Amino acid sequence: MMIAVIGLGFVGLTTALGLATQTGRLVYAYDSNANLRAKLKSGEVPFHEPGLKDKLHELLGSGLIICDTLAEALEHTSIIFYCVGTPSRPDGAADLDALTGAIRQSLPLLRKDSYCTLVIKSTVPPMTTTDVLAPLLKNSGHMVGESVGLAHNPEFLREGRAWQDFIHPDRIVIGACDAYSMRQLEQLYEPFGAPVLAVSPGTAEFTKMASNALLATMISFSNELAALAEGSPEIDISQAFRLLHADGRWQGGGMASYVYPGCGFGGYCLPKDTLSLYRYSQKIGRESTLLGGVLAVNVRTKRAFAERVVAAAGPKSKVAVLGLAFKPGSDDVRETPAADIITHLLELGVTDIVAYDPLAISRFRDVYGFPIRYAHSLEEALEGRDLAALVTAWPEFTARQLLFERVQVIDGRYCLGKREFVLPTQLRRS
Ligand SMILES: NC(=O)c1ccc[n+]([C@@H]2O[C@H](COP(=O)([O-])OP(=O)(O)OC[C@H]3O[C@@H](n4cnc5c(N)ncnc54)[C@H](O)[C@@H]3O)[C@@H](O)[C@H]2O)c1
Ligand SMILES: O=c1ccn([C@@H]2O[C@H](COP(=O)(O)OP(=O)(O)O[C@H]3O[C@H](CO)[C@@H](O)[C@H](O)[C@H]3O)[C@@H](O)[C@H]2O)c(=O)[nH]1
Q: Which pTM does this prediction carry?
């Protein structure tokens, strides 16, 4: 049984390659962006994601067919994965237009000789499948459970580790509207060897949003607490959080990395999904003050970091901004804290800014167009600067700390010069 994947960004491309690899089935893949299709056809992955390029080369034309039209992608397939973007609308609620548009375009093209299952991987607010998508199908003459299947199958991969996360998931969540889709997906995912958990579509949607909101909450909690400690030189913030991690309950699995302060969370998912869940809470008349606070702390954290930079060096200073990607190991600059921090610096009168990032410079320059300069290396970025503002914790910065000796540094990620814990013997001597 062949598969179609619609939308070939981080999630769609990984899903297409991952399903082709694990299930051995032929995957027909389509994206409405002709430029992206051309790049993928020539074997180019237009974003940094370890492992994907090799897999694309291996599977292009054999396990994976990049289609030029949606009709071609759907001609032979009976399971269709939708991985299109669900960005924020101007009011912060999720914009479902790309998803509903892709589904609408698909319906007249579905195979008539077979039951087709529509699987939603895009992140959507709770109750979207039941309240928006099932009625959309019904109004187009497709009854869920009779002629088509419908399921929400959230994706939990992280950027920078998309391939590994997809191939080795902790759990596979399936919120199917009909029994046939559930069975089809259960079979399809069997080779992954991960628990396949059947829930209602609303539970699947809610779980995905809850997961991102929880991560965002841990980060904002850490930033709020760090702000409380900031004024007391005796408190070593990095040590304090590393001591929290020493509680065995945080160890294993990487959760502790979210319980650590920084200069704000970013990326495509945490900001928009937390905001979308917050808007959902308002829509249903149960406003979540906690989620509102998580978002407000994130805004305040980025602003406060820019103010610390200006307070330390003054508006006329020459500043290096180190790190533009939203996290180390990625070249994604969507909602990156660096963009808001540079905006604040410019507003506060700092105009002489040189920025550097090991991976994300060209993407950042194209997306934001700030009136700043870019350096090709860390050395060049620091040359003649009064102050370096470290915004993304790239390993290059921690590995090359000697370069920072001649410049004042504001370490927005608490990653430099980690002081070890004082041993009782040292305490006695001092
Ligand atoms: N990026 C992540 O780490 C991640 C992880 C889990 C879930 N998600 C969710 O998955 C979804 C996709 O995220 P992404 O990061 O891959 O987005 P992306 O922006 O990288 O890719 C989305 C792709 O969909 C294409 N598209 C839009 N409308 C289309 C249409 N009508 N037909 C065909 N293609 C269309 C776009 O051209 C784009 O290439 C979002 O809902 C996101 O919240 C993202
Ligand atoms: O090493 C790290 C990793 C993360 N962060 C912070 O955490 C934020 C988010 O990082 P991460 O969770 O890795 O981002 P994403 O790749 O966007 O992944 C999140 O969003 C995805 C999209 O929904 C989900 O699938 C993932 O489970 C969820 O972790 C970053 O902005 C940073 O603030 C760090 O400071 N250091």
A: 0.96
